[in-house]
Design a protein that fits this description.
The structure holds 2 protein chains of 2 kinds. Chain A has helices at about 5-35, 40-55, 65-90, 100-120, 145-165, 170-180, 180-185, 190-215, 220-235, 240-260, 265-280, and strands spanning about 135, 140-145. By secondary structure, chain A is mostly helical. Chain A has a single domain, classed as ABC transporter involved in vitamin B12 uptake, BtuC (Orthogonal Bundle), CATH 1.10.3470. Chain B has a 6-stranded mixed sheet, sandwiched between helices. Chain B has 10 helices and 10 strands. Chain B is an alpha/beta fold. Helices cover about 40% and strands about 25% of the residues of chain B. Chain B has helices at about 40-50, 70-75, 95-100, 105-120, 120-125, 135-150, 165-180, 195-200, 220-225, 225-230; strands at about 1-10, 15-25, 30-35, 55-60, 65, 80, 155-160, 185-190, 205-210, 210-215. The chains are: A mainly alpha, B alpha/beta.
């Protein structure tokens, strides 16, 4: 393999790990609550603005803002679930939650435009040179954000999977996702589980947004393209599968970066969505066949 | 221990239960028998709070349950083995059981309950690492009962434990019911298998079209001519 191809492959894996992390929360929310959160991209955008604010006004390093953004997004997630989604969900207990889907679509448009007013239409990046510094390994060159993004995204994915598999709360979350009524007659409060799941999903998105800001600048509509991509990743990885979302992200990252070696970017974007449609048609359970959340 | 005081309930505009009244005393095994569609599962779901009662009230250990969600009812010491087992398909046998113990927030107690359940159904221990969905119907039913027992219930609601199972397996599972009862768990058994269930319990209620039409000791019910003709094929 020539070093150009190796470089493209590794670049793809590095950005793919972040795509996976962006999709993780979406997959968790869908797996547990069976709701589709169309505002996911807008929450990503909010996470990026919060990270930017931390870097600019608190003078923090782009990586040091992560715990802060994570905590803030956890609170945003809890409040959104408890006070906005839950009341709608409750009223629709006996039918498919279509109202929630329409609500999150409205929230998406509202938040994007709110930030257009608050932050203006410009593309903004954190101050400092750190994002442009590089590490050289033989012929290969990586930026600091690429390396940090890959490590942090992998670690957070692993942590979340371990949490879901190995702890009491994780087990209650999985049980509720697999059969809500069976879990509730065992004493599990599904409303509380939904609050934790939604908040956890957004906390992870907070990490992803902070990492993404070190690679691309933020603008009020950044969530549109990355949010849609998160849906592709979730479908590729298997809807509801947290581990699958990670591998789905890596796959999209590789297609994008390798595709760019051989064809214009417009084509590789089209190819990602063609694969997305193909997977939906032929393997609706996803490519990796991993178990559900 | 459990009083169902003229309870009505149903789905939407369809009323399934009509002023059902029955009671269960501490330590008893009580049967509710009736044909398919008589409202037995609806009654269980109304007791548990999964379905709201539209009239009347349910009292459990002296407390009104009206309006409480199922998880709150479960935490007061009631457990339901659901019709159709409803196991968590992507979890191992042991994880399914541990979910049952999760609300106790007491790992040591969960451990003891786990040993108790394994002692009762040794096959579950042998296969504890397997996925629940790989099980036969009988093993799934054992797991469903074991999972409910992991909540350390005072009252166990068993909804159609015999459904879809071979007679030899039903016999094996029914043999455990008196053992569970002997450990201090009161049991309300809902069944289509009238003879088998009445033989196990001291008292019973017969439900038809959402109404209690007959009640008495199991011996009386088994000797009742109407019941014999309708359910026992005699």
């Amino acid at each position: 393999m020539s070093s150009t191809i190796t470089q493209a492959l590794l670049n793809g894996i590095a950005s793919g790990a972040i795509y996976g992390l962006i999709a993780l929360g979406l997959s968790l929310q869908f797996g547990v609550m069976k709701i589709i959160n169309f505002a996911h991209g807008s929450f990503l955008m909010i996470a990026m603005y919060l990270a930017l604010w931390g870097c600019r006004h608190l003078g923090l390093h782009p990586l040091a803002v992560i715990p802060l953004v994570m905590a803030a997004l956890y609170v945003v997630g809890h409040v959104t679930q408890r006070w906005l989604i839950e009341p709608i969900y409750r009223k629709e207990a006996t039918r498919e939650p279509i109202g929630v889907l329409i609500f999150t679509t409205g929230l998406w448009i509202f938040l994007d435009n709110l930030f257009l007013v608050l932050a203006g239409p410009d593309f903004q990046s954190p101050p400092g040179d750190w994002p442009n510094e590089v590490v050289m390994v033989g012929d290969l060159i990586f930026t600091y954000p690429q390396v940090a993004g890959f490590i942090v995204a992998s670690a957070v994915t692993l942590l979340l999977v371990t949490f879901l598999r190995g702890t009491r709360i994780g087990r209650m979350i999985r049980a509720t996702g697999q059969d809500r009524e069976a879990a509730s007659v065992l004493g599990i409060d599904s409303a509380a589980v939904y609050q934790v799941s939604f908040a956890l999903g957004l906390a992870v998105l907070g990490v992803a947004g902070s990492l993404l800001l070190t690679i691309v600048p933020v603008d009020p509509f950044i969530g549109d393209s990355y949010g849609i991509r998160a849906f592709v990743v979730v479908v590729l990885g298997g809807i509801g599968s947290v581990g699958g979302a990670f591998w789905g992200g890596i796959l999209v990252g590789i297609i994008e970066s390798m595709g760019a070696q051989f064809m214009p970017v417009t084509y590789s974007e089209a190819m990602i969505f063609a694969i997305f449609l193909g997977v939906l048609y032929f393997r609706p359970a996803g490519l990796f066949g991993l178990e559900e959340a | 221990m459990l009083e169902i005081d003229h309870v009505s309930s149903g789905y939407g505009d369809v009323r399934v239960l009509h002023r059902v009244a029955l009671s269960v005393e501490e330590g008893e095994i009580v049967s509710i028998v009736g044909a398919n569609g008589a409202g037995k599962t609806t009654l269980i779901r109304t007791i548990m709070g999964t379905l709201p009662a539209t009239a009347g009230e349910v009292r459990f250990r002296g407390e009104r349950l009206s309006g409480l969600p199922p998880h709150a009812v479960a935490r007061r010491g009631m457990a339901q083995v659901m019709e159709g087992r409803r196991l968590f398909p992507h979890m191992s046998v042991e994880e399914n059981l541990l979910v049952g113990g999760d609300i106790l927030r007491d790992p040591a107690r969960s451990r003891r309950l786990l040993d108790w359940v394994y002692g009762m159904f040794p096959r579950l221990r042998e296969r504890r690492r397997q996925l629940a969905r790989s099980f036969s119907g009988g093993e799934q039913q054992m797991l469903a009962i074991g999972r409910a027992l992991m909540t350390a219930p005072r009252l166990l609601l068993l909804d159609e434990p015999s459904i879809g199972l071979a007679p030899v397996v039903v016999k094996e599972i029914f043999a455990r019911i008196p053992d569970i009862n002997a450990e201090g768990v009161t049991i309300l058994l809902v069944e289509q298998d009238v003879r088998r269930s009445l033989k196990l319990s001291a008292r019973g209620y017969v439900i038809e079209q959402g109404r209690v039409v007959l009640n008495g000791t199991s011996a009386e019910l088994l000797a009742n001519d109407g019941l014999k003709a309708a359910y026992l094929g005699q």
